[in-house]
């Protein structure tokens, strides 16, 4: 499949994001900084986060764009593991990328590393079960989350594990939207070239991310006294938060409503800009209201949305919100180069979030999600530059143009809007 560059290319992100070099000038306005460099990150975090959210200081973070940067860093971490590997993913597809990760995980298990892998049964339903069985035979403890069964009811089936987490030795963690699949591999290597973001983390926040994995594993596979016994074993093996590695303040959120509340709170406190890349955008009334209010008080509000989604119904449903947002001054850009799968936001260039949470009904009501929320001007500037470079190659939707769309599109949008809570 020609994916050797995934295995060999070093993972790095420079302040001037490489993906933006050589593109047309970005149509989004540039602004002066909102906060003085002397303001501590801890105070920034407290300003943009609700009071109930705890803040972990002393983290080092690196933005990785797409599978071409995320996969090499993840593979390198697995190959350097000495104690354990924890991988949780919605999709573990047994294609070329899945085989690459499977080989790295199996080799780690064979040299004595404790490897646990949790994949969602629905997200990975096309994968070959024989591949997973061969990994088990080589020492990888790989299990499906909620195997498909109609006997457990519809609500059981709808609650899926949508997280994407990799933790190695309690020292490094990866959180974002990238699954284990060739969809995220570069198109020149016959991959899908899907656009996405991953955050590589070192520091105390790694401990919190690992706790999320262990909690999901216990919930899915342990019962009664066995669950208590497993928890005690997990606490013995779980490392205490490590020493500070950087200056980034992080909050790890795994409650669906806490992630949603963090979005609303940060947008309501925005002074300069709100930039959101959303793979699937079917917002509730509170999200629409807070975005409109921010734009109407002079904040730059820009949305990067799918122009060609892998879920066409959601694509048309999303456009049912366009007129209300555009009329308030929100700018909308549609990603044209393949599929946008990122779930990334940055506010005022200092606060941001990356993870698995989508701004739509399934993430808010059903799925198990995890997001890393940061406060740091340097990381915020990197994420903002990445966003603006992406928008430089997108099609901006104008209110006048949108109102001239064909009548049949308006009908489809209204019908799908009516069913927005079940799409």
Automatic annotation (TrEMBL):
Pfam families found in the cross-reference section: PLDc_2
Single Gene Ontology BP annotation: cardiolipin biosynthetic process
GO MF annotations, alphabetized: phosphatidyltransferase activity
Domain of life: Bacteria
Domain PLD phosphodiesterase per the UniProt entry, residue ranges: 157-184, 336-363
CDD domains assigned to the protein according to its UniProt record, in alphabetical order: PLDc_CLS_1, PLDc_ybhO_like_2
InterPro entries from the UniProt entry: PLD-like_dom (IPR025202), PLipase_D/transphosphatidylase (IPR001736)
Matches recorded under PANTHER family: CARDIOLIPIN SYNTHASE, PHOSPHOLIPASE D
Name the UniProt record assigns to this protein: Putative phospholipase D family protein
Organism: Hyalangium minutum
């Amino acid at each position: 499949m020609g994916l050797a560059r995934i295995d060999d290319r070093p993972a790095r992100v420079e302040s001037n994001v490489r993906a933006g070099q050589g593109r047309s000038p970005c149509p989004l306005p540039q602004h002066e900084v909102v906060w003085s460099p002397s303001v501590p990150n801890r105070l920034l975090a407290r300003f943009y986060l609700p009071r109930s959210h705890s803040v972990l200081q002393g983290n080092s973070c690196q933005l990785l764009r797409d599978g071409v940067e995320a996969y090499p860093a993840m593979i390198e971490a697995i190959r350097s593991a000495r104690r354990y590997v924890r991988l949780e993913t919605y999709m573990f597809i047994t294609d070329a990328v899945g085989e690459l990760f499977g080989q790295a995980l199996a080799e780690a298990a064979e040299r004595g590393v404790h490897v646990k892998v949790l994949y969602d049964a629905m997200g990975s339903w096309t994968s070959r079960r024989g591949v997973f069985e061969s990994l088990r035979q080589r020492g990888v403890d790989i299990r499906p989350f909620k195997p498909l069964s109609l006997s457990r009811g519809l609500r059981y089936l709808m609650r899926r594990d949508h997280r994407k987490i990799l933790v190695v030795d309690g020292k490094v963690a990866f959180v974002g939207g990238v699954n284990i699949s060739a969809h995220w591999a570069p198109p020149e290597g016959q991959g899908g070239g899907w656009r996405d973001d991953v955050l590589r983390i070192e520091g105390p926040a790694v401990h919190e991310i690992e706790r999320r994995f262990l909690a999901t594993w216990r919930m899915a596979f342990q019962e009664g006294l066995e669950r208590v016994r497993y928890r005690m074993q997990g606490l013995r093996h779980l490392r205490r938060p490590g020493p500070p590695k950087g200056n980034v303040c992080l909050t790890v959120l795994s409650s669906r409503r806490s992630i949603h509340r963090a979005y609303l709170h940060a947008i309501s406190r925005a002074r300069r800009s709100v930039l959101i890349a959303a793979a699937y955008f079917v917002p509730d009334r509170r999200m629409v209201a807070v975005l409109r209010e921010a734009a109407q008080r002079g904040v730059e509000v820009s949305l990067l949305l799918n122009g060609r989604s892998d879920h066409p119904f959601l694509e048309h449903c999303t456009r049912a919100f366009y007129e209300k947002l555009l009329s308030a001054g929100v700018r909308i850009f549609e990603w044209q180069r393949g599929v946008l799968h990122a779930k990334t936001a940055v506010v005022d260039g200092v606060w941001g979030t990356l993870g698995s949470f989508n701004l739509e009904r399934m993430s808010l009501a059903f799925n198990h999600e995890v997001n890393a929320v940061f406060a740091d001007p340097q990381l915020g500037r990197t994420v903002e530059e990445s966003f603006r470079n992406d928008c430089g190659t997108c099609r901006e939707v104008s209110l006048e143009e949108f109102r001239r769309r064909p009548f049949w599109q308006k009908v489809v949008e209204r019908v799908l809007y009516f069913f927005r809570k079940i799409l």
